[in-house]
Design brief:
single chain, about 950 residues, alpha/beta, Arc Repressor Mutant, subunit A, Rossmann fold, five-stranded antiparallel sheet, 15 strands, disordered N terminus
Amino acid sequence: MNGLSEFPEALTFGQTVVRLQRRELCHAGNRVDVGARAFDLLQFLMEARGTLVSRDTIKASVWAGRVVEENTVESQISALRRALGDDRDAIRTIAGRGYQFVADVAPEQLATPVCDQSTAVRTTTCATVIHPAASPLIGRARDLADLIDIAKMRRLVTLVGTGGVGKTRLAFEVAHALTSYFTDGVFYAELAATLSADYVPTIPAIPLESPFADRAQTLDKLTQSHAGKHFLLVLDNCEHLVHSIARFTERLLNVAPRATVIATSREALRLSGEYTYRVPSLDIPTEDSAQDARAFGAVQLFEHLVKNTAPEWLRDKEMPIIVQICRRLDGIPLAMELAAACVSALGLSGVADQLDDRFRLLTRGFRTALPRQQTLLSTLDWSYELLDDNQRIVLERLSLFAGHFTLDAAQHLASDAEVSASNVLDAIIDLEHKSLVCSLAGLGKRRYRLLETTRAYARRKLEGRGDYSLWALRHANYVLEVFTKADQIAAGLSESDWFATCAPLLDDLRAAMCWGFSPGGDRRVAVDLTVASIPLSMQVVILGECLVRVDMALQCLTEEGSTQDERAMKLFAARGVCLLAHSACSQAGEAFERSRMLAEKFDNVEYQLRAIWGCWNLAYRNGRYGESFFLAETFTSVATRSSFPCDGIVAKRMSAISHFFKAEFASADAALHAALQSTPASSRQQRVRFLYDERMIAHAALSQIQWIRGRPDRARASAIQSLGDAEELDHPTSICYALGEAVCTLAMLTGDELLLKNSIKSLNAAARRHGMPSWKIRASMWEAHVEIRNGSVDAFFRVILPGLASIGTKRFLDYLTPFVAETAMMTGRQGRVFDALALIEPALKRALDVRDECSIPELLRTKAELILLRDGIADGQFEAESLLLEACRKAQQYGLLSWGLRACLSLARLWLGSGKEREAQSMLKPIYAQFTEGFDTKDLREAQAILDAPHDLTSLP
């Protein structure tokens, strides 16, 4: 027995002293011998802090695991009363219900002197029986303040909420805060142990100190002495007697006009004038706010609880696991208390991993809690037993919904020959009143959901009925029907609102596929679901998850010998896209080729285009520019047969980028402008048919071409416009692409520090919010880039090198050249020249091998700068000068004006250091004269400074 461990070692009430550690009882200054069980019983009653406890509860706690005689509790109570002498009234018997410890307890050193008999009586009949809690109320400041104000204005306030959400604790805090406001007292009545409505009239007799407390009475007798008093009565746990409590409360408030009642229940009393306050779960961090997790009530409470038992786990790096636990437990305080109790044994990760079996795990409630709140399972058993058969059946069937659901969906799924659609409607209304179903506002059509813990409980009940597979199949077919209908609408060129129609069913889709692929599931339905869900997976960009499901579906088709049907065609195309999003690997090419073969077999133009687009991407990413040009032409030819207008735009964009790879910038520029000018008002689904928004990627490519051709202002405007396109469509992958490959790059190249800082911050938030691994890597690389600039070269090894390795050959693409070159330069300037050269030299070799003319000048320039850092001007000038002259020649040959300016600036700095001031100016002047814009950018400002300096040019940066 250690439930009073937070109390002082010695406690007093009246003339009695209880010393816990020494297990000693003294009365009136004399030690009194009591047996071990009697002392345990006294300690248990004191731990209950005024809560009524039944005989069965006492036996289960004090005599746990033992068989005892029927009258054991009564005989031990009698023995205790004899030992307590004048303080025998500290233990009160409630006829037919149990026992209650009612004396005020204080630490021994704070005890008041022994008083006469009248004083002792007043001690037990003190008006205020709501004692301050032993621990702080966490995460409820706003609820507490609101309820204090409400209780002063309304005479009946009912705190409603799911089991374990903290209704009782909140009611206690409100009552305690109002102690001085209610002049005739604040009282508490615990109803959980009251099993029969016959006892309802006696409920307030105990806390209100009625002379009729120990025998049956009428409410009229009770209110004779309280009709004019100003008091607050807390009626706790009313749900199992809600009808009787409602009648009692209505009568009490009518005959005692200055009384106020605060009730706690899982459903409202539904009385006239009742103010129903729905107690929410503690607030939980969203993905957007996870960095500020400690500002949320659920995290605050969980950390407070863990601090008491396993403080060593409260480290910043563990915060994602804490947030995960709080989310999985819906921010319900009781569930988090039970989970926190397991941390010392299992650790945070162990608790998180075991939450799928939460009813076995969460069984370590406080000893002083009500029995039904000592385990999560018993809390839900209590609610479940209060339901009628129809409510139970509907709740169990609703547990198949893994996310939000509409009334139509609930009726479609849960009704059958025995349970009509109107029965489902009635049950949902009743279940919402009982806090077992949550109603969600602000989502257009009214939606409902079950808390995860409630859903898990009801699912267990459904599985126990024996027909679970039939209902799981029905749920899977319902999800398949919704997705198939949306796909048919899209195929008919009508706008299918995937986000409004299908995104709310994403969790249900996952659950249905998980069941379908399981040993007891239906693999045929699982494969069909996987195929039907591909468009949504592309739209919401859950490519890693999609790849897992696609591979499982293809394995099923392989085992069935069905890899030559149209389902396989779509699955192979999706596999290629998912792999392509991460790296330009050969497996992606194989998937696209198989999809293309099947598409040609079925003369499916759409999937021919998807496969050709994938092969084109792989060709240019692997430096096969001639092949990419051919594939772009092939796509253009096939697109003439497409019914999707946007496919012609995609063809123009692919052609433009293929011209770009061949350094044919005028043709590339013209094709991109043609694509942008001819873009129809396409639907969202058409604009992102090929992974990214077509308008966004066209503007991003145009930005790159304009920069290279020496048009910095137009390049920056196009980059920002690419972001605007992506944000207009609210497409996560497109937003990340626009930020990471266009806006951040142009901000770095032009020296716009503020734009770079803000863009990196936005990229990080977007990648984190949408959970895209490849873009999280790019965001972290941009952050590391800034760290290196600020002097932390460690970020190069900690983030940049692993990040580049993870994206494979994509790191050699031309649009990454500015990032790689600038990062290498900063790393070299901080003394890690050999590491910087190890980054640049493979990139330069590849660019020369595949004739990536757009990257060669900048990579040559960067290598030259690094050689000068490594060898100094005296030893490295010849090699560096040769590289820079070659960079200038390449840039001039292909019209790469901005790269040419950079190479000339590096050469000018080298010559200035060698006393060749006039040569530097003469070389720089003609290329500077070709610029007509961008004079506020860092490169042009430096060039202007060199050209304007009359002498002593060596002082220039």
